Each structure stands twice: as C-alpha cells, then as structure tokens.
C-alpha cells in the first residue's frame, strides 16, 4: 500500500512542476547565481527601505507579575530587490513567483524588547516576488515582549505596550525600516486593543 501512495505522490509533484515550465525557468534564471548574503542595492552606499506591518492574530497572554505580553503576529515585510526583476513577456506572462524565503536576501528584523531571548519569526514561509522587483514576506511569529503594566486604576486604566523592531545587523544608513502605514512627517503609528480579558494572568 505505501509504495503505491509514494508513486502517486511523485506523479502529482512531477505534473505540478511540469505544468508551468515558464515559472521553473524563471526561478532558475533568477536564483542560479543569486547571492542571498548580499544586501540587494546597486551601490553599497545606497539605503534599502524595508516596510513592515504587524497584524495581530491572537493576544495570547498578558502576564502582570512578570510584565510580559505574548502575542501571535503576522510580520508583513516588503522591500525591492533589483536582482529579482524580469520581463513577463519573456516568461509566458508570469508576473509573480513564490519562492522559499531562505533562498533570497531577507532583512534580519528582530524584536529588540523580547522577554525570552527568542528574536526570530516562528516559520520561514515563502516569499512573493513581483516582476518589478518587489518582494513581500509575511511570516507568522509568537513574541514575548517586555511591557510595563500598571493596573492601579483598573478597569479605567489605559496601557501602552511598545514592540520595538529593528535590523540586527544593519544600521539606518543601510536598512531604513518604516511602517507601511506611517504618515508623512511622523514615525508613530497609533494602534489600540482591549486587554481587559487578559488581566487575570498573574502567574
């Protein structure tokens, strides 16, 4: 029984790969000599802008005793990679491509004020590349962040928990990290949420 299932799986995989030869050819052409360790800029002095946006999937816990907030987030990131551009006319009209994110350069964005020593995202999902060189990557992550919480005036209190993200390797002259919804002339993005259901966690 198992050999039949294995054979069927191989047939399906082979059919899927051969179904879009243009996409495979594009993938090979883009990444055959691609160096994922090099920041994708024309000149080394150029600044690479990386846009980031967080989408809250779940507020897992607010630990009052240890002043830790645990969240499940989607960390949306976007940047331009000039080495990942192509003319769709030369590849059967293919305008976008999904590739393993660990095959291309990625900004090493981490949570600076993490509370458990885990800086990275949970799963290295695939990245989406568009023919103009735009790269989008939206990995999920579970973060435990330090957060000063004062509930003296509960339930009429208002808490502000800051998640501080940045590149671990590059300074602002190499990677300019910006919020996708950032307003012109401001580096603050207002967001809010009701944390009252999480106040009972004091362990």
Q: Which characteristics define this entry?
A:
single chain; Acetylcholine Binding Protein, Chain: A; 7-stranded mixed β-sheet; two-stranded antiparallel ribbon; 14% helix; disordered C terminus
Written description of the protein model:
14% of the residues lie in helices and 30% in strands. 16% of the residues are buried. The protein has a single domain (22-181), classed as Distorted Sandwich (Acetylcholine Binding Protein, Chain: A). The longest helix has 18 residues, at 2-19. The termini are far apart. The strands form two sheets. Strands 1, 2, 3, 5, 6, 7 and 9 form a seven-stranded mixed β-sheet that branches. It has a two-stranded antiparallel ribbon with strand order 4-8. By secondary structure, the protein is of the alpha+beta class. The radius of gyration is 21 Å and the shape is elongated.
């Amino acid at each position: 029984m198992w050999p039949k299932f294995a054979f069927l799986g191989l047939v399906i995989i082979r059919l899927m790969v051969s179904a879009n030869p243009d996409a495979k050819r594009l993938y090979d052409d883009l990444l055959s000599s691609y160096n994922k360790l090099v920041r994708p800029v024309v000149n080394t002095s150029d600044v690479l802008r990386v846009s980031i946006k967080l989408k809250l999937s779940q507020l897992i816990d607010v630990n009052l005793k240890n002043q830790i907030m645990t969240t499940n987030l989607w960390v949306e990131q976007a940047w331009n990679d000039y080495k990942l551009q192509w003319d769709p006319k030369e590849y059967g009209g293919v305008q976008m491509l999904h590739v393993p994110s660990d095959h291309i350069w990625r900004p090493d964005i981490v949570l600076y004020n993490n509370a458990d020593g885990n800086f990275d995202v949970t799963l290295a999902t695939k990245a989406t590349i568009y023919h103009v060189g735009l790269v989008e990557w939206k990995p999920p992550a579970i973060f435990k962040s330090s957060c000063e919480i004062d509930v003296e005036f509960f339930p009429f209190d208002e808490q502000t928990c800051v998640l501080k993200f940045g590149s671990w390797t590059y300074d602002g002259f190499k990677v300019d990290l910006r919020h996708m919804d950032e307003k012109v002339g401001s580096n603050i993005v207002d967001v809010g949420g009701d944390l009252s259901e999480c106040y009972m966690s004091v362990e």
